[in-house]
């Protein structure tokens, strides 16, 4: 009796039939979103290098759609190499059933392109053993990050610092680290020399969260009250934009790591939408996955570094929290869900819960697909009408 399931497991593992099933599921769901919302464009900026050169071009839908499949394949390969087949399968399933990914792809979002770059970098780090190809992938990824958005520059700095700490390890040799740093600096200098004023404007408008107008107004109000109370000099020292900027930064961090923002429809892609970024059924595997991370300190220590690396653009952005601009954080959540679900499956007495979670996810997927098909285009038409009325 055991030969059938063992043979089936061996077949799925060796022939990656599980990956094909996930690809088909992703194609069906993303195609459904495309059919319901097209033409739908998220408010997104173009590539930085094109803006500097004065070229008006955005990523077309066909390329964004292809990038969605490439990201799925890269995510599968990376997770399978690091965690094994089952985690890769569950992680890819989370990707395929995530409205977050499909909306970003259909909306021609720059975030889909940035996610591809980060996955290329992580593929080079974790999956390539040959030093030559590893540094090629890393150099290509870093150059594309620098050319794509100024929001990626702080994240790239965090990545370089991490690689420096891990020098002379399986990640990167010290010689290749120096080469990677030198190429990144030369690329950055080339952008500055091409159009310094445009780069400076992009930095000032997108990165300087310390110039947030609400922080400045709060500081001015408090200093005025301090002057009225006769403690103006003390208030000038204590009430400053740097202190309140730190508080603002801390609140942004809490907002970014709050699971509610990723599993409920209050953080929607377009106004009036009821579609959650990630199906709520995945929250239990996410909690279990976080528990697994905590038990493996060595793995957790470096996973925290990569979490900070991918969260950095959202933390330093002058805009508020936007689910449309941090899609490259999604693999961290998907991997954690995959780890948690695999852990649940490995515990024999909890396998009934594994089955119930899978059923709950599929049921919610059907309801979300029905809502997108019947109502999302109506909500989008309402949004367009509201924008026309405002203008």
Structural notes for this entry:
By secondary structure, this protein is mainly alpha-helical. It has one domain (3-150, 152-206, 257-390). It contains 19 helices and no strands. The protein has helices spanning 3-15, 17-37, 48-53, 61-83, 85-96, 99-106, 110-127, 131-148, 152-165, 174-194, 196-206, 213-228, 232-238, 241-256, 260-263, 283-295, 297-316, 330-346, 351-390. The longest helix is centred in the last third of the chain and has 40 residues, at 351-390. Residues 1-5 have low confidence and may be disordered.
How does the SSE layout of this entry go?
Layout: H1 3-15, H2 17-37, H3 48-53, H4 61-83, H5 85-96, H6 99-106, H7 110-127, H8 131-148, H9 152-165, H10 174-194, H11 196-206, H12 213-228, H13 232-238, H14 241-256, H15 260-263, H16 283-295, H17 297-316, H18 330-346, H19 351-390
Helix pairs in contact: 2-4, 2-5, 2-6, 2-19, 4-5, 4-6, 4-7, 5-18, 7-8, 8-10, 9-17, 10-11, 12-13, 12-14, 14-17, 16-18
Q: Which descriptors would you attach to this protein?
A:
391 residues; globular
What's the shape?
globular
Radius of gyration: 23 Å
In which range does the helix fraction lie? Answer: over 70%
Tally of alpha and pi helices: 19
- Uncertain residue segments: 1-5
Q: Please outline the major beta sheet.
A: none
Mean pLDDT: 77
Sheet-strand content, in percent, reads under 5%
**What is the H/E order?**
HHHHHHHHHHHHHHHHHHH
Quick recap of the structure?
With 391 residues, the protein is mainly alpha-helical. The protein has 19 helices and no strands.
